[in-house]
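In this section we walk through a basic example: taking a raw amino acid sequence and producing a predicted 3D structure, encoded as discrete structure tokens. The instruction is simple. Fold the sequence below.
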Amino acid sequence: MAGLVVGRGVEAAVLRGLIADVPERSAAVVVRGEAGIGKTLLVRSVLDEHSGSGVRILGGACAPMSGATAYSGLGATVTAALSQSAASGDFPSAAAARAWSMQALAGVLDSDAAQGTVLLVEDVHWADWSTLDFLAHSTRNLPERRLLVLLTWRDETSHPDRLTWLAELLRCPDVIDMPLRRLTARETSEQVSGLQPGCTADTIAAIYQRSAGNPYLNAELIRGDPTVPASLRKILLARLQALSLATRTVVAATGTLARALDDDDLLAAVDGAADAVREACDSGLVIRDPAAGCTARHPVIAEVAYEQLLSSERRDLHARLAKHLAGRVLTDGNAAQLAEVAEQYHRASDRDATFTWALAAARVAEKAYAYSEAGHWYAVASSLWRPSDLADERVPERLVLAERAASLLGSAGHHAEALALLEEAVAGGDGEVGTLSALLMRGRLRAHFADDLAGAIADIERARRLVPTGDDRTLGRVCIAHATILGPYARSAEVARAARMALEHATRADDIRTVGQARATLGAVAANEGRIEDALDEARAALTIARDLAEPEDLAWAGVTLTYAYGIGGDTDNVVAVANTIQSELRHLMANEHWLEGIIESNAVYQLYAAGRWDEALSRDDKGRPSSGPAFKDAQFALIHMARGNLQTAAELQRGQESLAVDDQPQNKLDYAATEAELRLLQQRPREALAIALDAAELIHDTDEEPMSGVLLRIGLEAAVASQSPDGFDRLVTLLRRAVSGVEAAALAAIVDGERSRIRGTPDPTPWLTAAQEWASLGRPYWEAQARLRAAEALLAHRGQPGARGRAGGELEAARQIAEQLGAAPLLSQIQGLAKIARIHLDDSVTEHHEHRAATTDPHPPLTDRERQVLALVAAGRTNREIGATLYMSPKTASVHVTHILEKLGVQSRVQAAAEAVRLGLAGNPAPPA
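The resulting token sequence is shown next.
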């Protein structure tokens, strides 16, 4: 066996090192690659070296049909903790119960073994979701020392959802990705010679040509004709075809359960044909270990054997196994045992038995806090339900089963699956038991995960009509569902009305959870209205309730509201502190990240950006990021990358945000448009920037988002000035007049005045100096530096005034220091460019007596006479139309001349060009036309 482990020296050394370090440092490794690449052989050979070394090794494996059997990949030693630990059963929420189960399982790994523990889970690509959740939890919460989590993964057969899980796992910094490559020709020769000494060079070459370096295929080719073109599956199929049908059925059976089969299982699979079991073992295709059970020599063997059975042969196999397994289940069978039976009956197409066992499996899995698997089996039962099943008083109505399945699947993070289930289940009239609850759940899922506002509202209204008279508890839940559905769609008045009604009904019904949800929603409304203290009071009350109930959804909503309210108030430290605290609490309650963490993180990252704490913001990249799709905070990361000159990175992040920029969700559209407009400005595309800003402004005008649109207003006005579009300027000011509000009102009002002076060609430093002071008082250094640059430009345009040049130098120096501290390269370049044009030496800029001019010939750029005429008129504040009329050219031609002048002078604005005109002696004396 050891002769097979070749070409893996580096990987083996890494694994040995990690095991040696386990007493002092925990880690996790994913060994992955194609079928037959040698994953199992590598890890087992290294672990065998440490047998008896004091390291405790716990092993488990997943199987092709184990996806609905809870914790099937963890092995009996680990899962025994759920039955051995004395759970009180008195948990405030399902999430709290789930958290307890994770801790109980993790407690097994925290052993007294002197050298620590290695948890080996093989073929994780087949794992059930409870196993995957536990592995995700374990790797994200690795203890400081004494644990190595070792996983194997086959690359080419993974379901998309599991690939997403793997991508999420590999983002964890403590997880080592160890992909295995194919062997080289030399390594193949070493392997083959080790397995079959004396093998000729020609044979080895033929094997390598057919195997392309796959180690398992190398070993199989040695047993047959190496000159026959073959794949691994074809070779295994040839091996299987030499066996009887009963023997092939034995081999296939080894892949039907989520564990190794014992002798009785194999005998049941072939209806007691002992000769077939012996032949399968004698062939070497099935490995029989009296202690550990029977498995296929390689998982692919069982897959191929199963695939070759006819449909009827498969059903017969499952029917025999189902009957056998059902006879072994005690009245108090555990979740895995019941799921085994349900799975076999399901694959045998036995409707009645499947319904009975699926319902039993669902109930036991739910009690074991295996919510994904419980949801799966409730969904199966719902799909098979018949009215005649109600003869058994223990059987719920169809929609009750469907709603329970969707609720459990949703709590486990499988929202798309939950929605698809309810879309199919909720149909027809409203008389069916369970319709109201199913409608409420489907409405929430449609709004939050399918962007279907119309469908969601229709569901809520339909549910409202079904509420019995006087049922305050249910009516409160309908109202809060209505409020939370409308939240992202900027319909504050409706949200507030629905939330107040929910609070009123829930208070009468003593429904504490709905009270908390209503207060969180009312907190968000108060924040939108600028009532920050009210918002904080409501959000804190909601957070207290959410913590008492241990409900992740409510905890996350309270976190969103708190970070939002603190952010509007400019309290960056509290935004970050709340984000960190809420995420820590969610990690305790959930195996995976909650989808609302992305919004909490977006709030935190934006505040850090605004506060100039850019490196701290970028360090949060892995937090609150969904396992697939864009992250809300990428728009904020794009702002930082733009400010630092990384335009390509910013553009890539923006492309990922396009799917979020939908018109019926103004908040997302606003964030996207503001960032995209700023990107276009930096790309020297001001007209496009203005168009984007105007489009977004039209959308959010007179909505709840208008007061939050200060960033869009600033960027849009700058784009209007750069585009020389007075009409666009005035339109933006009209559409976003309510943006000048809140703690930033004074700064924004000053910016409007400052930009208006620029577009009129009469730059005024006063509003820019006011804006700089306001931004400084709010702790917004980047925007402060931008305002100081504009103030310097305006001062230089009035350099004839006493002290203006010295004041401009002071503003440039202050702006330079901020830009350098932030690493804002483009802004720093503008500051240095203006200083160079104005002959201001920033190191000595504070006092006038350090100013000096070069004694040599003026090194101004070589402008044509016509360009000098145009520049003089620019310095005089003329528009392109006025320049055209003066010089007898069209406004478009004048615009082209201005563009060329800016390029030659190396400046980015007409104000900077005017400053250069002063240096050249062209200002104040525009030349007549030639």
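Looking at the output, two observations stand out. Residues 804-822 form the longest helix (19 residues). Residues 844-860 have pLDDT under 50 and may be disordered. In the next section we compare this with other chains.
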